[in-house]
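Cross-check.
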Amino acid sequence: MDCRGRLLLPQNATAWRAGPAVTVSRSYVPVTANYHDRVAPPAGDVDYEAHGDGYAVQRRADPRIAAAVLSALGAARTVLNVGAGAGSYEPTDRYVVAVEPSAAMRAQRPPERVPAIDAVAESLPFDDDAFDAAMACSTLHQWRDLDRGLAELRRVTRGPIAIFTYDPDTLGRFWLADYAPEVIQAERRRQPPIARLVAAFGEGTEVCRIPVPADCLDGFKEAYFARPESFLDEAVRRSQSSWSFVEPAVQQRATARLRADLASGAWDERYGALRTQPELDGSLRLVVAPPKR
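Predicted model, tokenized:
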């Protein structure tokens, strides 16, 4: 693996052939109004029915990040996407099955994407080894039982598992921590330690630092490292779920101070070099679990 974001295919990648057609497990309970109450805990610590509006517009797949995710999937022909949201980073040249528990997020999936199944990571409705590969992009912080969700991913996937996530130990280095420390602290509490993911999948698991491009299309916080004015836009903040954990007064204070520093030149005096920096070595990580042995 090249940790500048280009992942090299394992030598046995060609062995990940598509198996029989993907089928729903015979033990699967069809989704009903109280399905998640009966089968698994309600998904997520953010109510996307209330906070998910416009997410698909702000959180678009960045092609450079997408290339790393696609490479990690290897030669897989059938791919499971868990916590699929509006479909960002789903490959277009594979057979994809998407799982997403939020109705608001499922409704934002574009017509060229497959409809998502209403289910949760902790209780995937598929048989063992049903997929060649699996992916989970910017979603682990929404899982109620991380260990169970990771175990379910491993159970239903015979090939590699690619997880696009953030390293909580590095989040505090981002300049936004000077303006909205409460938001960064909320994000750090939510993101699982990278070591925990590696331990869950075991030997052969690889971690790659993914550089964040200055013009990144995916609107997570570090995507705007060189575009500080973007944080003054409420639509941008609404698409970053950790803002929903702080009081409106905190947002008002943070944006007022940022607006003043941008107007006075104080932000540029401290951080202006970032405006011409092509990429940021920030908290973005791609964790890749190897195929089953």
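The chain has one domain: 13-17+35-289. The first strand starts at residue 78 and ends at 82. Passed to J.P. for a second look.
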